Structure formats: structure tokens, C-alpha cells
Amino acid sequence: xxxxxxxxxxxxxxxxxxxxxxxxxxxxxxxxxxxxxxxxxxxxxxxxxxxxxxxxxxxxxxxxxxxxxxxxxxxxxxxxxxxxxxxxxxxxxxxxxxxxxxxxxxxxxxxxxxxxxxxxxxxxxxxxxxxxxxxxxxxxxxxxxxxxxxxxxxxxxxxxxxxxxxxxxxxxxxxxxxxxxxxxxxxxxxxxxxxxxxxxxxxxxxxxxxxxxxxxxxxxxxxxxxxxxxxxxxxxxxxxxxxxxxxxxxxxxxxxxxxxxxxxxxxxx
Amino acid sequence: xxxxxxxxxxxxxxxxxxxxxxxxxxxxxxxxxxxxxxxxxxxxxxxxxxxxxxxxxxxxxxxxxxxxxxxxxxxxxxxxxxxxxxxxxxxxxxxxxxxxxxxxxxxxxxxxxxxxxxxxxxxxxxxxxxxxxxxxxxxxxxxxxxxxxxxxxxxxxxxxxxxxxxxxxxxxxxxxxxxxxxxxxxxxxxxxxxxxxxxxxxxxxxxxxxxxxxxxxxxxxxxxxxxxxxxxxxxxxxxxxxxxxxxxxxxxxxxxxxxxxxxxxxxxxxxxxxxxxxxxxxxxxxxxxxxxxxxxxxxxxxxxxxxxxxxxxxxxxxxxxxxxxxxxxxxxxxxxxxxxxxxxxxxxxxxxxxxxxxxxxxxxxxxxxxxxxxxxxxxxxxxxxxxxxxxxxxxxxxxxxxxxxxxxxxxxxxxxxxxxxxxxxxxxxxxxxxxxxxxxxxxxxxxxxxxxxxxxxxxxxxxxxxxxxxxxxxxxxxxxxxxxxxxxxxxxxxxxxxxxxxxxxxxxxxxxxxxxxxxxxxxxxxxxxxxxxxxxxxxxxxxxxxxxxxxxxxxxxxxxxxxxxxxxxxxxxxxxxxxxxxxxxxxxxxxxxxxxxxxxxxxxxxxxxxxxxx
Lengths: 269, 614
Description:
The complex is a heterodimer of chains A (about 270) and B (about 625). By secondary structure, chain A is mainly α. Chain A has 13 helices and no strands.
């Protein structure tokens, strides 16, 4: 509660820190902020060319490019936000040593800066759905909720790794490797049903990975009729439930670790 | 109700080197490369402050001021004790926290303002007032990287003055900026104070403390050594600074020995030659430099890498310096000098002269350290200077002059600046110590000065000691007159002519530089050597192997003393010798050392060849 109050008090700081990141990022390129739109558009184009023109889709009914893009954008956001967060507290050393403000704001602003790019990408993707012959459905309504759960998970992990990095500088490399491994544990290029061949224990462990549920939910919201790829043992409801619980658990752990360690940030940096 | 109250406040730091904290958890003890030590940056500080009051925190560098302020500002958590704050604390530990060089001045006002706790709406409302205070005019739209340091200071202060606070913690930032701006800032702070705001200010400017603060708190190596009325505490501090000088006044005994030479001191004159810059330091601690590289912290450490401020002669000593490079600099070197507090420049090696030039430093953090396996300076108060120089040494990037104090406590009956190894001989036989060292091994010997004659001693204490005369004195220099090089052996041979047998005579020998500084004096008695003079000529000598004195002209003074250590015969100018050296090191004596550092050739250690070792 105290944290929420503090966050509210410093809400403008998150905005300013995030917008500073964005401003600095797009200040020098000639096309400036246009890149935030051009990059995802180009990526959708590349996905289309490779996965719909050159390759044949292993998933029925849905163009492969869309299938990839719906998972790729959320994953890239997650990867960038967590990856950038790892060193953000250490990098803000000069600030931390000199001024007091809730330290959580530092990873939050990093997530915020990446969130803006991500939301733009998703908006473009929704616009391009028609191009691939997919109609918008009522399910789009839950998209903001999915993003919220996704944010909760990202924030939890970002808090955890950025706090640990201060004291243990090896965390950065562990996270780097971890994210590569994690990517293959998320059904971006393959359908979840692929996991059916393994035992139910493996399957339920797999579904505990919150990114599996989040990617599923993004697809579920964006692609009407999607849902048939789930293994029979896993229901939509159960997967959603797991995902929400594990995401909030991640946030709780992240907050706890961060809170406990932030007292000594200034001493370790 | 006090706005801030500290009770038994303490902050302990753990000193951890390169490998960071994980090593502590994962590696077994013997695998850990470095020792971990703890030290208290602040210990048992206690104070309280009412609204409308100000405390000045004073003390020499490294006394814990910044740590105390960081504790007050909530930037770091105390290890011991408690700190109660009632109200909003804002801290100016640096100006313009979070400034981004690529953004415009106006955008940075928003950024820095929100960091200081303002909302965007409030900033918008106060924008005109901030702009006016900063006096930047239309330049506010230019990117910050085009600003001068002064402009950034003004902007930072202008923003800070508009941020909300009940207690403002200020660390040494009033000293930047020109006089006019400083006055304006102080006037503004006075205004706030009248309005009931409280201040905690750390500064070296004692006048500001006296004028602006009601209370003052004096820190000495982390301990609160005085707290109370500002005038009084400043007085105590000033006394302590100047008291350091008094402290080095010679003891009665030391004075007596120094008489050996001061009486009728050398004909060479007492002033250093004009080209010997830096022989004597001005008695001030100050910091200067043009920036680009900043010295962040300097530690004096013992063998366990724990911070020390007192050692004994011959102890291990390491000076570790951490610096931050703000922009890339080329062709520079590091220097660490030590002065005795009465102004004697003892030794000031730098990496260039030691053959470790640094081609360039990239922006970022770095460190270097100078290790003395055995630091031979004799008792007294000393200060270390640390500097990062450009090639010409015309302007240092950052220079901390005489800011790091070290006390050396010596119980040994040796006097002067540095302990010199030596052996006593009589009739070619070593009187105490190890083995026989032939005096003839020095190559061709040459007398630099031979004093024949009967230099009469002063009135004697006992009749039996009358009638000892210095028959001759030779100063043997292996490479010929005036060519003694650092690291050569020096032998002083004397012949006493006695009219009757004398038992238990002690010889005093002192080496003085031409400007009158006593380098080293000792008596044979201290080394357990007493001469037995027979009627007639008696030869004795003292050998200084590998004499480490640096360039200059040196005088040898000798005296005799009886068993009770009553000096009765003094020859202040028994002889002269000249030291030459190929490397123009600064100071009086060269000390065996080892440099190490992040920019010094991939961290390799450097040991010096035998000649330069001592």
C-alpha cells in the first residue's frame, strides 16, 4: 500500500524517466519516432515473406506469419524489458547515491519505455490482421487485460534481476542465457499441442511457465477461432488461472527481494 | 519537535574488491583473491535539528561527512542506531541529479524536478521562476551538453530551490559557482531558513558554517568528535588543524641531537635551490584540477587492506585511489606524494618516472594503487597528495593536495625523515650485526673531504673525556667525488685521536640536506655499539648500504656522547657528499614500491630493479 502511494506520488517521474529513454533513443535518427512504427511494420513484412510465402504453415487455418507475430511481439517486449532492466539499477548508480526516490521506479521506467514500442507494435498488428484475412472479434476486448498480466510478470522479474544484479554482477549473464533458453520453452514457432507427446507431468510443468499462458492468451484474443491447439489435458480456464497466479507470484517475489535489498543499493554500486 | 534526530547513528562498510559479493557466498576462503574488511565510515553520531536551524558538518576529507549526509538523505540505510525524520527531506548531494546531456535545459528541468519530487504540473507552474533564478535565458532550449559547468550548476541549484522540502541536505556544492552566484544561493537559503526550513550542510568553508549554521558537528575519521555551537566547534576544528603543526615540534631530546648540525649550519645556505620545486609544500590542503578525471576516493590501507591512519616505521602501506573518467584523456600519469606536516617533501613517485606511462583513459571507473612493502619514514604527521597529471604537469586533471593524513609513531631513538639501514665498524671490524664487510670493496675510494685538525669539542662534562679530537673524516664514494648515485653504498670513516683511553664512547652521525632538513640521525649507542678508545688514533666507520637518498647535496654531522648520552662534542659540518640520480624523482628519499592499477598495463605488478629498490 505504501509502495502504491509512493508510486502515485512519483507517477510523473516514471513518465519522465521513460520518456527520457524514448527521447534519447529517437533523438538522433533522421526518421526519429517513425522508427517505432517502421520497425514492427517491417518485421510483420519479414514474417509474412518468410513464413507465409517461403514456408508452409504447420498450423492449420491461421497464416503462419500471423501465428508467429502474435507471439513474437509479446516475447520481444518481455525479453527487451527484462534484459534492459538487469543493469538499470546499477547504471543509475549516480542517481541512487545522490537522491532518494522509490527505487522501484527505475526498472518500471525501463519497462515503460519498452511498453510504448510494444503497444505500438500490437496496434499495428491488429490493423494488419485484415491483410492476412483475419477478422476482428469481440475477444480483442481482453487484450488490455492480457497486457496487464504480461506487465505484472515482466515487472516481477525485472525487479528481481535488477535488485540481484547490484550485489551479484553475474546475474546479467545468467539472465542472458536464461532468456535464450526460455524462448524455446515458449510456443512461438511451434503449437502447444506439440507438447502432447510428453507425459502429463512434463506438460503441467510446461504450462506453469507463465509465458506459455500469456502467449496463448494473446493469440486467443487476436485470432478468432484459436484455441484448438491446446492439448486436451489443458483447459483454457486452467491455463489462464495458472498464468495469472504465477505472474502475480513473480511480482510478489520480485517486490519482496527488491524491497529488502534496496536499503543497501547505494553501498554496493 | 525536531525535524531530524539521530541516535547512535553508525554506518559500516564492507570493503569488497573486484570479484564482488558472489565470491563471498560461493568460493571457499582460500580461493578468494582478496580480503574483505569492514570499517565504520560513521560511528555513534548523535544530533537533532529543529525547524529553522542549520547544522554544519565539518571535518577533513574522508572523515565521513558524505556518508553522514547520505544517511540523513535516506540514500543509504544505517548499520547501527536510528534516524527519525519528520517531514520531507530533499538532498543536494550533487547538483542536477539525473541530468541527461542530450536533452535540452528545459527537458532536464522536468527530469531533475520530478526526481526531486515535483509533479509535472508544479514544474510547469514554477518554470518562469526557475528560469529566472538560473539566468539562462533562451539557452534553456539548447542541449545540456553545450552548457558550461557553471551554467549547469546554476540550473541545478535553480531547480533544487523550487523543490519541496522541510529539510535540505547539502554536500559541498556551494563551493562551485562564482562568488556572486554563491552569495545569491546563500541569500536564498537564509530566506528558506526564516520560513522554518532546516538544513544540514557539509562544507570545508568554515566561514559559511559560522555565519549560516547554529550548530556544527565535527567528524574525525567517522567519529563525532565535537557537536554544538557552530563557532565553538569550528574553533576546535581550526585548532586541531593547526595543532598538528605544534605536535611535530621537537622533543627536548630530539632538539639536542639536532643541535649536532644546526649549530653553525652548512655554508651551503638554508634555502632550497630555485629549481628544486616542490621541496617544501604550502601548508594547505586543497583540491585543484581541470576536471575530466575525478579522484573519487583515496584509502590508506594496511596489509589486510583495512584503512589505517597510524602506522609504525617499516610497516606495510598501500595507497589506493579510485577515480572516474568523465571524458577520454590521453597521455597522463598518476602521482602519489607524501609530505611531512612541517613541509618536508619526503617522496613523490609517479607512474611516468617509474616507467608506466598511461596512453589514454576511457570514460568509466578506474583505480590504481601504490604499495610500500615497508614504509620507512620516521615518526611524525604526514599527508599524502594524490594527483592525476597531464604530460607537462602544467595542470592536473585532479589533484588532492595533502588531503590524506597519516601518523607514524616511532619509539625508536632515531631522528629525521627516514630510517636508513646502516652498520657500524671499528678498525675494519663490524661492531654489531652480520659478517664482515670490507670497506675496500667500494672500488676506488676517494676522500671527499679530509679534515685534519683538532676540532675542539665543547666544554666537557667530565675531565676524562677531554682530549678527544677528530683526527680525520673520510666520506667514501665509490664513483668519485660528487657522483654518488641513489642506491650506492656510502661509507663514513672517522679517526678519533685520544690522549688517554676512553671507555664507552657513543658516536652520533646525522645526515642533513643542504636546506637544513635532517634526513636521518642515529647514535651507535642505539645500535648497541660503544667505542673503546685507546690512546692514539682510533678508526671507526659507518656504512649506509644502498643509500636511497634522492638528488641533492648532503652534509654529515657527527658528535660524541658518553654513556649517559650526554653529548659533548659536536662537529656540525664534518663533510659533504652529493647525490645524483638518473631519474628525477621528487622528494628526499626513494622508497621501494609497487604500482598496480586498472590502467597500468593489464594489472601487472612492477618491481623495481635492485638499484632503485630502497
